[in-house]
Write a structure and sequence with these properties.
The protein is an alpha+beta fold and about 1200 residues long. The chain is about 20% helix and about 20% strand. Among the domains are: about 250-270 and about 600-735 and about 750-840, Rossmann fold (3-Layer(aba) Sandwich); about 540-580, SH3 type barrels (Roll); about 1040-1165, 3-Layer(aba) Sandwich (Severin). The strands form 13 sheets. Strands 9, 25, 26, 27, 28, 29, 30, 31 and 32 form a nine-stranded mixed sheet that branches. Strands 16, 18, 24, 33, 35, 36, 38 and 39 form an eight-stranded mixed sheet that branches. The longest helix is centred in the C-terminal third of the chain and has 22 residues, at about 960-980. Keywords: Cytoplasm, Cytoplasmic vesicle, Endoplasmic reticulum, ER-Golgi transport, Membrane, Metal-binding, Protein transport, Transport, Zinc.
C-alpha cells in the first residue's frame, strides 16, 4: 500500500467560474458548480481494479426517429473523443453519444478498502435526466385523498426521453472531481469550480481533464454499455376509424385463425424547440432568503457540490418571489406520468426546482488543510453520544416559551439564521473528541482469535448493533429493519474511513409491512425551508416558535397549526407532536404533492401460452390464484384489470361490460403491433368481474392442443406498454422459454460445459438493450414490469431481468418448473402468487435520501430509475423491496457530534391517497479508529459488499469480484491489527463486531452468484445476483448464511410465546457436516426454502409423529408437507416452522431430504464451513487470510 495521506487540500482554483455553454433544445446536462480535488489517490494503487466503483450513468439522447434506431445501439457507451462544446447535430446517434454533451467526473471514493486493488477515485459519467416543461396532465389543484371516478385518463404520448442507466448508479462525489487514468496508478487532477446557468432545454459542456485524450481512451476501453435511445413521441391513441382493424373478433370457445393480420404503424415524431438563454450572476453575499432566480441557479447543494438543474432545465418562474412556492410543491410532488412527453399544458416539471431542496447558501471554503485524525488514543470514560441532545426540551413542558435570545454573528454557517443555544454548543464541544476507548472496553471491541476460537457463531440470530446514543435518542431512533447503516459510529473524516477499510453505506427497507405506523393527517407538513427535511425527533427546538434542522442547521419557524398536539389535545407543546416522537411516520399528502389525480390501481397480466408453457402447467395455478384473490387485489372502485396472452402471435381479450362472454382479438403481425380495441382491453374489475372469472376458468384449457413452440415476448410487451401508458400501473409477465420471435428475440448464450468453470464466466450482462429501453419507457409512464420466469431450459435471464430492474419491478424465478414433476416449485409458485396478488402496493412513487451536510451519496443499488443525484423513480413500490446506498464523507464532521439520514418515499396508495413515508436515522460521530470498529454492523457491511460485488461481476469479471471480497476481509482485519496495540501479528485477530466477517464472506463466495468450480446454471447465477440487489437485509442474510437447527429434540425449556402459541427456540448450529448426526433431524432455513434433513438412524418415534410414516425407508422422496399429528413433538416442530415462515413475506417451501434424494446436493452445498473440491473450508480460509495479511 502507498502511504496514507494525512491531509486533504482544496485547490487554489476553488470558487472560480467558467463561462456559460449551450446546446440544442432537448438535451440535458448535469452541471456541478463546486469542485475540489483530493490527494488521497496514492493510498491505493489503481492499476489492478480500476473501475470497481464505476458504473456508466444514464446518457440522455435527443428524440430520434425510427430511422436511427438501428444496430448502432449496441456500440460502446463512450467514443474516444469527449465532446467539448454543445451544438446542434444532425448526425444519427452513434453508440451512446448524441449531440448532447456529458460531464465526466471522478469523485473521492467513500470505500477504498481493497489494498493494491482499487483506486480511491471513481471514474463516473453522469448526464442528468431532463424533462420538457409542458404536460397535458392535470394542472388543477386537488383535494387530499379525493377519489376521481369521473376523471378520464386520456392517452398520452408513449415515448420516453430516457437514456442509459444502471441499477447501481454511480454519482459524482460531492466537491471533488478527478479524472483517473485507469491503466496506471497516476491520476490527473484538475481543480476547478463552476457556477453554471443552463437555459431552458439546453445543455452545457465542460472540459475538466488535462490529458483528456488519454483518459477518454481509457474510459472508452473500460466503461462500456449501451444506451437506451427512445422515441420522443409515439401515438398510442385508438386506431383511426378510417383504417381497417386487422384483427379477429370471436366469441368463446376461442379458435385461432391462421390468417395473418397487419397493424398500423405508430406515428413517430421528433420535436425541437429553441429556448431563450437565461443567465445571471451568482450572489456576492450570503442571504437568508434568496430570490427564486438564485435558488433556480444553484439547484441542490450538498457539502460543496451543487446539482445545478440535475434533473431538468429550469422551469419558468411565477410572479411570486418568496419561499412560499417551496411549500406548495416538492421534488417528490413533481412526479408526473407525462413528464417525458411533449404536450401543451404548462405544468412545472422540475424536481429540484419544485422542491427548492438543497443548501442554498453560499459558503466560503478555505484552502486550509484538514488534519487527519490521530491513531488510536485512549480517552477517559465518557457518556453516550448525544447525551443531553435537545430533541425533547424539558423546559417546554410549560406553555410559556423561554426568553428569546437576540441573534449573534455565528461565523460558521454563512447564509443561515443562527441563534446561540447554550445546550447545543456545549453538546458539540463536549462530544467533539470523545472515544469509546475508556477504562472498560466495550464488548464489540474485545479481540477474538479467529484461528483459535472456532465456535464464534452465536446461539441465536445476530442482532443489529445499537448506536451509542443516550437512552432518549436510542428510543426514538429508526428501526434497523427499515433503516440501517454499515457503521453505527460515523468517522469524522474520509481519511479515517479509508483507514478503517470498511464501506460506508445504508441498507433500506422503506416500504416494509409495519404493525404500528403513525399516520399524520395534519394539513401542514412541517419541513425545513432550506434543505426540505421533514421535521423529525432529532431536530432541536430553540423555543416554542423556532426549530433547528438537524441536517442543514437552518432555523425555521414553527407553524401555528403545529403548536396543537392532537394526541394530548394540548397547545404549546410542539416537541410532543407525533412527528417529533416517531422516527418513522407517514403523512397524508395534500394536493400540493400531486401533478394529476392519483392514478387507479391497474393490473395487466401477460401470459405465455406456447406449447412449452402448456406442458409446464403453470396456467392452472396462475388462473386459480387469481380467482381466489380477485377480491383481495389492492385497489378501490376504480381498479382496472386486463389480460394478454402470446405465443407466435399476440392475443387480446375484450372484457367490456355488457358482453355475454369474453371476446378474443388476435394480432398476428408482431412486427407492427397495435391495440385492436384500446378502450375495452383494460376494464373495471367490479363492473366486469363475471366476464373476468369466465376468462380465468377458460384460459387453462384454451391452449391444451397448441403446437406453437415460438414465443413473441417482445411484441407482447410492446402492446402491454401501449395499453398501460395512459394511466400507469403494474404489468405481470409470465414467461417459460427463450423469446424467439419479433422484437427482443434472444439466442442461447450458455455453454453447459462451462457451468463448472473456475476461470471466466461469460454473459452475465444483457445480450440486447431492447428490454432495458422498454423498461425505461415504462418507468416514464409510471408502469412497472414484474417477471415470473418458469423455465426448464436456459432463458437468458440476464437480458430478461432488465425489464424489471429499470422499471422498479421484481423478479421471480422457478427453475425446472413443472406442475406435476416438481411439486415443490408448483407449491412455491402458488404461495408466492398469494402474497404477490394481495400485498400492498404503491404507485407513481419517488424516493429521496437526505443526509447531514458533509456526507454525500454516490451509488444506489436496487431496482429503480435514477432521476437525479439523490432522487429515485419507482413506478411501483412493494413491501418486499430493499435498497442499498454507498456514501462518502466529503467534509470533516468535527463540528458535529451527531449525523442524521432521512429517506422520504412519496407514493400513491391503492386507495388513491397520496402518502409520504419518512424514516429518520441518527448516529454518533467518532474521531478514533477503535470507535469506528466498535460500531461496525457486520451484516450490513456484507450485504453492501454483495451489492458491490454483483456490479463488479457484470462490469469486469467474476474473478475480480471474488478477489475484491477476499481483499475486503484482508484489508479491514489488517488495518485493525496494525492499529491495535499488544496484538501478536502471528495470530488472526478481529474485534468482536467483525468476528463473523470472514465467515460471511466465505459464505458469499460459495453462493450461486459468485461460486466457481461447481456446476451452476447461468440463469441460476444471474437470479442470485438479482436477489442480492433487491432483497432487504434480513432476507438477504438468510440467503448468504442459512440457519441450521436440530429439531428432533425440541423441548419446552427454551421457548417464546407468540399469540398464545409456544414456540421452541433451538440453538443455531455450525454449517458443517460435523454437526449432522445419523440419529438426528436438522432444519436448514435458507430464506426461500426449508431443507429438513433426516438421518438414516433417526428415531422412528420422531419420523412417525412428525412425518407421519412408520420408519425412514417409508418416507417419500418428494415430501413437502408435514402432517398434523396429535403428538407433542409434531406440535413443537410445526409451531417452530410456522414461526419461521411468519417472519418473512414469501412463504418458504419445505423439502424433506434423505440420503438418496437429489436435493441432497443442494443441502450440502449450503454447509459453507466444509471444504469442497473448488473451495476452502472455513479454517483454510482463515489461514489464507492470515497469510495475505502477513505478506
Amino acid at each position: 500500500s502507498g502511504p496514507m495521506q494525512s491531509q486533504m487540500q482544496f485547490p487554489s482554483g476553488y470558487g472560480s467560474h467558467l463561462p456559460n455553454y449551450s446546446a440544442p433544445s432537448g438535451h440535458y446536462s448535469q452541471v456541478p458548480n463546486k469542485a475540489a480535488a483530493s490527494h488521497l489517490e496514492n493510498q491505493y494503487r489503481a492499476s489492478y481494479y480500476p473501475g470497481y466503483y464505476s458504473a456508466p450513468a444514464q446518457n440522455v439522447v435527443t428524440s430520434v426517429g425510427s430511422n436511427v434506431l438501428n444496430a448502432q445501439e449496441s456500440q460502446q457507451l463512450y467514443n474516444n473523443t469527449p465532446p467539448h462544446s454543445g451544438g446542434s447535430s444532425d448526425k444519427p446517434v452513434q453508440g451512446a453519444i448524441s449531440s448532447a454533451s456529458y460531464l465526466h467526473m471522478s469523485g473521492q471514493q467513500s470505500y477504498s478498502a481493497f489494498d493494491n486493488h482499487y483506486s480511491t477515485s471513481v471514474s463516473s459519467s453522469v448526464a442528468s435526466q431532463g424533462f420538457p416543461l409542458n404536460s397535458d396532465h392535470y394542472a388543477m389543484p386537488m383535494v387530499s385523498g379525493a377519489i376521481y371516478p369521473n376523471v378520464s385518463y386520456s392517452p398520452v404520448a408513449a415515448g420516453s426521453v430516457y437514456g442509459q442507466t444502471f441499477t447501481s448508479q454511480s454519482l459524482p462525489a460531492v466537491g471533488q472531481f478527478k479524472e483517473t487514468n485507469v491503466f496506471s496508478s497516476q491520476s490527473t487532477s484538475v481543480p476547478h469550480s463552476l457556477q453554471q446557468h443552463v437555459p431552458v432545454g439546453y445543455n452545457s459542456t465542460l472540459s475538466t481533464v488535462s490529458s483528456a485524450q488519454s483518459v477518454q481512451d481509457n474510459l472508452s476501453r473500460n466503461l462500456t454499455g449501451s444506451v437506451a435511445k427512445v422515441n420522443n413521441q409515439i401515438n398510442t391513441g385508438g386506431i383511426d376509424s378510417s383504417q381497417p382493424v386487422h384483427s379477429v373478433s370471436q366469441n368463446v370457445p376461442f379458435t385461432k385463425p391462421g390468417a395473418g393480420t397487419s397493424a398500423s404503424s405508430a406515428v413517430m415524431s421528433s420535436v425541437r424547440s429553441p429556448a431563450p438563454s437565461l443567465s445571471s450572476k451568482p450572489p456576492s453575499s450570503p442571504s437568508v432568503t434568496q430570490s427564486p432566480e438564485l435558488a433556480l441557479q444553484e439547484g441542490m447543494q450538498y457539502g460543496g457540490y451543487v446539482n445545478n438543474q440535475a434533473s431538468s432545465a429550469p422551469a419558468p418562474l411565477s410572479s411570486s418571489s418568496d419561499d412560499e412556492e417551496e411549500d406548495e410543491e416538492d421534488e417528490e410532488a413533481a412526479l408526473d406520468s407525462s413528464s417525458t412527453t411533449s404536450s401543451a399544458s404548462p405544468v412545472l416539471n422540475n424536481y429540484d426546482v419544485l422542491e427548492g431542496g438543497g443548501y442554498t447558501e453560499t459558503r466560503s471554503v478555505t484552502s486550509s488543510p484538514v488534519p487527519a485524525p490521530s491513531v488510536l488514543q485512549t480517552s477517559k470514560a465518557s457518556k453516550p453520544f448525544g447525551y443531553g441532545y435537545p430533541a425533547l426540551q424539558p423546559g417546554y413542558q410549560n406553555a410559556t416559551p423561554p426568553t428569546p435570545v437576540q441573534p449573534s454573528n455565528p461565523g460558521h454557517h454563512p447564509g443561515f439564521q443562527h441563534y446561540p443555544q447554550a445546550c447545543v454548543n456545549q453538546l458539540s464541544s463536549s462530544l467533539g473528541g470523545l472515544s469509546l476507548q475508556h477504562s472498560q472496553q466495550p464488548e464489540s471491541l474485545r479481540p477474538v482469535n479467529l484461528t483459535h476460537d472456532r465456535n464464534i457463531l452465536p446461539v441465536s440470530s445476530v442482532p443489529a448493533p445499537v448506536p451509542n446514543l443516550n437512552s432518549d435518542l436510542r428510543k426514538l431512533n429508526c428501526s434497523p429493519d427499515s433503516f440501517r447503516c454499515t457503521l453505527t459510529n460515523i468517522p469524522q473524516t474520509q481519511a479515517l474511513l479509508n483507514k478503517a477499510k470498511l464501506p460506508l453505506g445504508l441498507l433500506l427497507h422503506p416500504f416494509r409491512d409495519l404493525t404500528q405506523l403513525p399516520v399524520i393527517t395534519s394539513s401542514t407538513i412541517v419541513r425545513c425551508r432550506s434543505c426540505r427535511t421533514y421535521i423529525n425527533p432529532f431536530v432541536s427546538f430553540i423555543d416554542q416558535r423556532r426549530w433547528k434542522c438537524n441536517l442543514c442547521y437552518r432555523v425555521n419557524d414553527v407553524p401555528e397549526e403545529f403548536m396543537y398536539n392532537p394526541l394530548t389535545r394540548s397547545y404549546g407543546e410542539p416537541h410532543k407532536r407525533p412527528e417529533v416522537q416517531n422516527s418513522t411516520v407517514e403523512f397524508i399528502a395534500s394536493s400540493d404533492y400531486m401533478l394529476r389525480p392519483p392514478q387507479p390501481a391497474v393490473y395487466l397480466f401477460v401470459l405465455d401460452v406456447s406449447h412449452n408453457a402448456v406442458e409446464a402447467g403453470y396456467l392452472t395455478i396462475v388462473c386459480q390464484s387469481l380467482l381466489e384473490n380477485l377480491d383481495k387485489l389492492p385497489g378501490d372502485s376504480r381498479t382496472r384489470i386486463g389480460f394478454i396472452t402470446f405465443d407466435s402471435t399476440v392475443h387480446f381479450y375484450n372484457l367490456q361490460e355488457g358482453l355475454s362472454q369474453p371476446q378474443m382479438l388476435i394480432v398476428s403481425d408482431i412486427d407492427d403491433i397495435f391495440l385492436p380495441t384500446p378502450d375495452s382491453l383494460l376494464v373495471n374489475l367490479h363492473e366486469s368481474k363475471e366476464l373476468i372469472k369466465d376468462l380465468l376458468n377458460a384460459l387453462p384449457n384454451m391452449f391444451t392442443n397448441t403446437r406453437e413452440t415460438h414465443s413473441a415476448l417482445g411484441p407482447a410487451l410492446q402492446a402491454a406498454f401501449k395499453l398501460m401508458s395512459p394511466t400507469g400501473g403494474r404489468i405481470s409477465v409470465f414467461q417459460t422459454q427463450l423469446p424467439s420471435l419479433g422484437a427482443g428475440l434472444l439466442h442461447s448464450r450458455e455453454d453447459p460445459n462451462q457451468r463448472s468453470s473456475t476461470k471466466v464466466v461469460h454473459h452475465l450482462g444483457p445480450a440486447t438493450d431492447f428490454y432495458k429501453k422498454l423498461a425505461l419507457d415504462c418507468s416514464g409512464q409510471q408502469t412497472a414490469v414484474d417477471l415470473f420466469l418458469l423455465s426448464s431450459q436456459y432463458s437468458d435471464l440476464a437480458s430478461l431481468a432488465c425489464m424489471s430492474k429499470y422499471s422498479a419491478g421484481c423478479i421471480y424465478y422457478y427453475p425446472s418448473f413443472h406442475r406435476s414433476h416438481n411439486p415443490a416449485q408448483a407449491e412455491k409458485l402458488q404461495k408466492d402468487l398469494k402474497r404477490y396478488l394481495t400485498r400492498k402496493i404503491g404507485f407513481e412513487a419517488v424516493m429521496r435520501i437526505r443526509c447531514t451536510k458533509g456526507l454525500s451519496i454516490h451509488t444506489f443499488h436496487g431496482n429503480f430509475f435514477v432521476r437525479s443525484t439523490d432522487l429515485l423513480s419507482l413506478a411501483n413500490v412493494n413491501p418486499d423491496a430493499g435498497f442499498a446506498v454507498q456514501m462518502s464523507i466529503e467534509e470533516s464532521l468535527t463540528d458535529t457530534s451527531l449525523v442524521c439520514f432521512q429517506t422520504a418515499l412519496l407514493y400513491t396508495s391503492s386507495k388513491g391517497e397520496r402518502r409520504i413515508r419518512v424514516h429518520t436515522l441518527c448516529l454518533p460521530v467518532v474521531s478514533s479508529l477503535s470507535d469506528v470498529y466498535a460500531g461496525a454492523d457486520v451484516q450490513a457491511v456484507v450485504c453492501l459488499l454483495a451489492n458491490m460485488a454483483v456490479d463488479r461481476s457484470v462490469s469486469s469479471s467474476l474473478a475480480d469480484a471474488r478477489d475484491a471480497l477476499v481483499n475486503a476481509v484482508v484489508d479491514s482485519l489488517a488495518a485493525y491489527m496494525s492499529s491495535a496495540s499488544n496484538l501478536q501479528q502471528s495470530m488472526l485477530i478481529a474485534p468482536t463486531s467483525l468476528k463473523l466477517f470472514p465467515l460471511y464472506i466465505l459464505a458469499l463466495l460459495k453462493q450461486k452468484a459468485f461460486r466457481t468450480g461447481t456446476s451452476t446454471r447461468l440463469d441460476d447465477r444471474v437470479y442470485a445476483m438479482c436477489q442480492m440487489k433487491s432483497q432487504p437485509l434480513v432476507h438477504l442474510m438468510k440467503m448468504i448464511h442459512p440457519n441450521l437447527y436440530r429439531i428432533d429434540k425440541l423441548t419446552d425449556e427454551s421457548t417464546i410465546h407468540v399469540n398464545d402459541r409456544v414456540v421452541p427456540q433451538p440453538p443455531l448450529q455450525k454449517l458443517s457436516a460435523e454437526k449432522l448426526t445419523r440419529e438426528g433431524a436438522f432444519l436448514m432455513d435458507c430464506g426461500s426454502i426449508f431443507y429438513l434433513w433426516i438421518g438414516k438412524n433417526c428415531d422412528n418415534n420422531f419420523i412417525k409423529d412428525v412425518l407421519g410414516y412408520p420408519n425412514y425407508a417409508s418416507v417419500p422422496q418428494k415430501m413437502t408437507q408435514l402432517p398434523e399429528v396429535d403428538a407433542p413433538s409434531s406440535e413443537r416442530t410445526r409451531s417452530f416452522i410456522s414461526w419461521l415462515r411468519d417472519s418473512r413475506p414469501l412463504s418458504p417451501v419445505l423439502q424433506v431430504i434423505k440420503d438418496e434424494n437429489p436435493a441432497k446436493t443442494d443441502f450440502f452445498q449450503h454447509l459453507i464451513e466444509d471444504r469442497t473440491e473448488a473451495a476452502f473450508s472455513y479454517y483454510e480460509f482463515l489461514l489464507n487470510i492470515q497469510q495475505q495479511i502477513c505478506k
